[in-house]
Amino acid sequence: MQLVVLGLNHKSAPVEIRECFAFSEEQVKYGLRHILACEDMLECVILSTCNRTEMYAVVRDSVDALPIMVKFLTRINDVPYENKDYFFYYVEEVCIRHLFRVVSSLDSLIVGEGQILSQVKKAYSVARDIGTTGTILNTLFNRAIAIGKKVRTKTKIAYNAVSVSYAAVELAKKVIGDLSRSNVLILGAGEMSELTARHLVGNGVRTVFVSNRNYKRAVVLAEQFNGVAVPFEDFLKCAVNADIVITSTGAPHYILRTWDVAHLMAKRQGRPIIFIDIAVPRDVEPEVKAIAGVQLYNIDALEAVVESNVKSRIQEAKIAELLIEEELKELLIKFRYLAYRPMLARLTAKAERIRQRAIKLTFNKLPELTGEERRVVENMSKLLVRKLLRDPIVNINEAVGTENEEYYLETVRTLFKLDEIGEVDKRDKKTCHRYARQ
């Protein structure tokens, strides 16, 4: 069995590709309920955020699993193509390191952002509740979540925490300058919208308008920042008086089309407007940027802002990388122990069967033994087995993670003839690290 991850993110694919693979929680649940029907897929967790979609899995063979996983991801959202150029595919140790870096926000669009840890927790929780995780992914994700917390407490990588919403506000400041005279319309009332509003208020915007399909949620968010809630059907009317429109809805289609914006600009009498679209899938039709007086930025345009934030966190990221490598070494050792446990269990089980047969023959030949004498003989036989197995087991445990690891594994298999009774799955020899399912 092998541990793999197939995915795409802001580094490997542009937003128009990523939005095709942006799955809702219900879509993830639907996919997970069907994934284990494939005999090559043993465990699975799907992580889908605005900047990445990743499928972590335990498979029988990493080469055979790749086309299956690509096809699986494309079918969840009925993506009409299977272009592998946008995907990355990591196996074994590289896969583990990748997840550790993701959950520690070292692989995020903005290094140090705080949302990814909770998103990984949620993805793992969904998969665990559905029943697509086992010993390997439970061990991996519990350790990953722990290292994510450790990085945030042991380093200053999260000081002055930033996010995509923060980058959106920084972009607005770069384009407009002083925001104190600006009116801002936020479309959407989710977590991203709340963070954006918080940053805007912190930068002194004049008025924050909030519009959402669920008007009550818009009211709640607007009240937090002394803003104004706007019914969703009226947001275009409100946009006439806005200087900046930031969109972050969960709509599966464009909510601002070229015709809508052209009509809006006619009412604004030439006054310019900025659209910052941080939604995935995008909220604003790309052709809108061709309209005079309109500046349109999508989530990819935030990378320039991100770059300046990353520079101030380079040293903390280096510390985090060291913490990750330490945890990685420990987890690899743990996985190796998990690999040996089935073999050691088979070894002790074989020894116990031999002991029991010998005791039975002995008692048959010595029927005059009393109950107490039988207990003494039984205890002596157990002690002999423990003594005989002690050195092999100790040497195996000491060999884990060393150059002698394979030598001891093969030696024990051969000397005790464990393969002869089917104790070892020979497919395990394909893997760099052998894992055991419990």
Give the overall pLDDT as a whole number: 85
What's the number of structural domains? 2
Q: Strand percentage, roughly?
A: 5-15%
- Sheet with most strands: strand arrangement: 7-6-5-8-9-10
Shape: elongated
CATH architecture of the largest domain: 2-Layer Sandwich
CATH superfamily of the largest domain: Glutamyl-tRNA reductase, N-terminal domain
Tell me the radius of gyration: 29 Å
Description of the structure:
- With 438 residues, the chain is an alpha/beta fold.
- The chain folds into two domains: 2-159 and 314-329, Beta Polymerase, domain 2; 164-303, 3-Layer(aba) Sandwich (Rossmann fold).
- The chain is 52% helix and 13% strand.
- The protein has 15 helices and ten strands.
- It has helices spanning 15-18, 25-35, 62-76, 93-103, 115-130, 135-154, 164-176, 191-202, 215-224, 235-239, 258-268, 303-311, 314-365, 371-399, 405-415, and strands spanning 2-9, 41-48, 52-59, 88-91, 183-187, 207-212, 228-231, 244-247, 273-277, 294-298.
- The strands form two sheets. Strands 7-6-5-8-9-10 form a six-stranded parallel β-sheet.
- Helix 9 (215-224) links the parallel strand 6 (207-212) and strand 7 (228-231).
- Helix 7 (164-176) crosses helix 8 (191-202) and helix 14 runs antiparallel to helix 15.
- It is elongated.
- The chain starts with a strand and ends in a 23-residue tail after the last helix.
- Mean pLDDT is 85; it is low at 421-438.
